[in-house]
């Protein structure tokens, strides 16, 4: 179960049919149209801050500062927080680098902010393991990706999630699944 807070942390993940999340720009783009753009903009506008690990920051900081349009404008104006132990300063406007304890820093930010982040790398897994994610949205993209970072990895804390919404995604071919932590979220190890 997530920690008691009036503010929410929403995690949004693009995942292929075979469970790959890595490098979605290479395989998910053809499926994203006006519906996905409108949905992404609304989610960003509902948040008070956008969280990223260093890798996501590096990808986004190359792509979005020079882009134009409603989503790009909103993202460039948004408060952004990049979590990295090696990045010293961020060149992208409105971006703060946080190098300390990830869990404690996000817990503090969440006390007064609704937060959004994309992906599920090491940073995302850390936040899930700490019970900080209030909503997990998986957008299933109808492709098989031959290799890459899998969504499901060994290790980490096992938690139960309840499905709260399922249906077509915001553009043809996509499926959207929204989960929230179950009230009894820790899964017992059957070998124990």
Features:
192 residues, alpha/beta, Dihydrofolate Reductase, subunit A, eight-stranded mixed β-sheet, 8 strands, 25% helix, 28% strand, globular, disordered C terminus
Main sheet: strand order:
4-3-2-5-1-6-8-7
The number of helices is: 5
Rounded mean pLDDT is 88
So, CATH architecture?
A: 3-Layer(aba) Sandwich
Beta-strand proportion? 25-35%
Tell me the number of strands. 8
Top-tier CATH class: Alpha Beta
Helix content: 25-40%
Here the CATH topology equals: Dihydrofolate Reductase, subunit A
CATH homologous superfamily, by name?
Dihydrofolate Reductase, subunit A
Are there runs of 5+ residues with pLDDT below 50, and where? 186-192
**Which structural class best describes the helix and strand composition?**
alpha/beta
Shape: globular
N-to-C span: 21 Å
Report on the structure:
By secondary structure, this protein is of the alpha/beta class. Residues 186-192 have low confidence and may be disordered. The protein starts with 8 loop residues before the first strand and ends in a 6-residue tail after the last strand. Helix 1 packs parallel to helix 3 (70-77). The protein contains five helices and eight strands, in the order E-H-E-H-H-E-E-H-E-H-E-E-E. It has helices at residues 34-46, 54-63, 70-77, 102-110, 122-129; strands spanning 9-16, 49-53, 80-83, 95-98, 115-118, 135-141, 159-168, 175-186. The protein has a single domain, classed as Dihydrofolate Reductase, subunit A, CATH 3.40.430.10. Helices cover 25% and strands 28% of the residues. Strands 4-3-2-5-1-6-8-7 form an eight-stranded mixed sheet.
């Amino acid at each position: 179960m997530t920690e008691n807070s009036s503010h929410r942390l929403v995690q949004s993940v693009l995942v292929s049919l075979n469970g790959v999340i890595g490098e979605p720009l290479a395989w998910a783009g053809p499926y994203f149209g006006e519906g996905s753009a409108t949905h992404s903009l609304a989610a960003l506008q509902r948040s008070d801050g956008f969280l990223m690990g260093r890798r996501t920051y590096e990808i986004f900081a190359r792509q979005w500062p020079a882009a134009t349009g409603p989503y790009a404008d909103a993202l460039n104006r948004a408060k952004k927080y990049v979590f990295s132990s090696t990045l010293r300063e961020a060149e992208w406007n409105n971006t703060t680098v946080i190098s300390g304890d990830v869990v404690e820093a996000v817990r503090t930010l969440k006390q007064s902010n609704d937060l959004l982040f994309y992906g599920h790398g090491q940073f995302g897994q850390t936040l899930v393991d700490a019970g900080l994610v209030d909503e997990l949205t998986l957008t299933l993209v109808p492709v098989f990706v031959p290799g890459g970072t899998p969504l499901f990895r060994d290790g980490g804390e096992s938690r139960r999630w309840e499905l709260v919404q399922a249906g077509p995604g915001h553009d043809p071919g996509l499926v959207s699944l929204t989960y929230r932590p179950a009230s009894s979220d820790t899964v017992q190890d059957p070998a124990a």
